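Appendix B, Record 12. Input sequence as logged:
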Amino acid sequence: MYPLFVKKVCIDWNRVPANRYLNRIPALKDVEEIPFRSPVTYFAGENGTGKSTLLEGIAVAYGFNPEGGSRNYSFSTYDTHSELWEAITLVRGIRQKKWGYFLRAESFYNVATKEMEYADISHPSMNFHERSHGESFLALMQSRLSSPGLYILDEPEAALSPQRQLTLLLEIKKAVEIGAQFVIASHSPILLGYPGAEILSFDRGRIEKIQYEATESYQVTEMFINNREYLLKRLFSNEQEDSE
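Logged structural output:
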């Protein structure tokens, strides 16, 4: 395995004002260090548990634009990122950063627009707006994962079909083989299944390493597939009772 670009995330909570919502996120508020041990690390957990907040903080602390893009992107459509990045110190590996990318599903449209503005003769635009959302996502990943670097992906499954998620897994594998490192927030039971990945759960009010089969994404999907008719009957029955 290649040395990692980022080995550890350290958080100094003295640099976060006491009245900020960051101090009220159970999984984050007492965390001082998060080590990375694998070239692919997943942040898993329910909505609102702090996955994307931490991912964003790491990305901005590393030098990425808050809305996404490569380290060369510098723009702001609407500032929504927290000040967590100011409290983060990244313990970097011995390798020099060469390339990397921060992908955010929620602000991909803005990045795609800027990509057109930044284009020139030497770097022609990929015209993401002329493709479907899913096609643009995948085309971006296939074009950007060609070099060693740190890749931070926030819910990349948002625009991808199950088939395209499998394709993304293959692209991640190819990138890891040439020395890339990934930190990914995801709900996808397909993406979370990457072999050898470390999965950090934000559920239960703390960050802890768990096995793939212990993720809620896997368990809920397995339960639905194996008991679809029963679960839907119970779900719809409860909904009807609540409305009466």
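The longest strand covers residues 6-11.
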